[in-house]
Design goal:
single chain, 2 domains, binds adenosine-5'-triphosphate, 5-stranded antiparallel sheet, alpha/beta, binds magnesium ion
């Protein structure tokens, strides 16, 4: 299977703290990979360093988008990383609360449209056609996520689990080849989490993309992951199949906090 993302000895220091120490992680085409580890392990820092929100202290990140050559993401700005084809959600929901559900998804879509500011002002025919396409594309995504009936509600008025789903829909509107989810099940009840399972599997199936998710809900991780990477205190301590990780001594110790 083709690799779509690879990090080489990726490090991030905050002052004297090694938040991330020599991480080598790879993701294959259409794989679902989980990144797990106790609080403060460096998981979100990893996402921030590959999406351009933080500069890595050393090491490198390579993306290999389908049908394109390998490109280093190091030093790229977040919007450029999105254009290359990585999309993410955040541990703390970051929706535009005062915008409608539909508008939130349309904002995501705009990184793939060609209209410039002038065309929007004069409302050229190309602008109008592209806008119609954007609405249709966004509505289709909302339907997949069971959110179409809320299209014209303000995002901030959605129930919590629906806001989490909307964040994923907005990320997918950028048409990524790799979707990064930071604790997508946080705050969900068991039934909502199971629905999320199905949704993540469905996204992979329908969009043919790879998914890397950070998640504390081990049932969800074990149910849907092809492979699991484990971090603890900035270091990579294990990787393997769900079965291998469940029985890994170092992983069990990291979670129980034992020496
Ligand atoms: N911007 C920052 N400045 C300084 N220290 C930071 C910064 N971001 C993260 N850290 C520190 O880096 C370490 C790793 O944090 P990170 O948020 O990556 O952990 P995490 O694995 O995502 O944890 P959690 O499961 O709690 O979300 C922590 O000790 C954290 O306090
Ligand atoms: Mg985190």
């Amino acid at each position: 299977m083709k690799t779509v993302l690879e990090t080489k000895d990726l490090c991030k220091n905050f002052g004297g703290l090694k938040a991330m120490d020599s991480i080598n992680l790879d993701i294959k085409d259409q794989e679902i990979v989980a990144l797990i580890g106790p609080n403060g392990a460096g998981k979100t820092t990893f996402f921030n360093c590959i999406t351009g929100m933080h500069q890595p202290s050393s090491g490198d990140v390579f993306a290999i988008p389908p049908q394109l050559n390998q490109v280093s993401l190091k030093g790229k700005k977040p919007n450029r990383v999105t254009e290359i084809g990585l999309a993410r959600t955040f541990q703390n929901i970051r929706l535009f609360g005062k915008m409608t559900v539909l508008q939130n998804v349309m904002v995501g879509r705009h990184c793939r449209t060609k209209n410039n500011f002038l065309e929007a002002v004069i409302r050229s025919s190309r602008f109008k056609r592209e806008e119609r396409e954007t609405v249709k594309f966004s509505q289709d995504l909302l339907e997949t996520f069971g959110l179409l009936e809320f299209a014209h509600n303000l995002a901030e008025n959605l129930p919590y689990a629906a806001q989490r789903r909307l964040e994923i829909a907005r990320a997918l509107a950028t048409e990524p080849f790799l979707l990064l989810l930071d604790e997508p099940a946080a705050g969900m009840n068991p039934q909502e989490t199971q629905e999320l399972d199905q949704l993540i599997l469905q996204i992979r199936e329908e969009k043919n993309i790879s998914i890397l998710l950070i998640e504390h809900d081990m049932k969800l991780v074990m149910r849907i992951s092809d492979r699991i990477f484990v971090m603890n205190q900035g270091k990579q301590i294990a990787q393997g199949s769900p079965g291998e990780i469940q029985n890994n001594k170092a992983v069990i110790q990291a979670y129980l906090g034992e020496e």
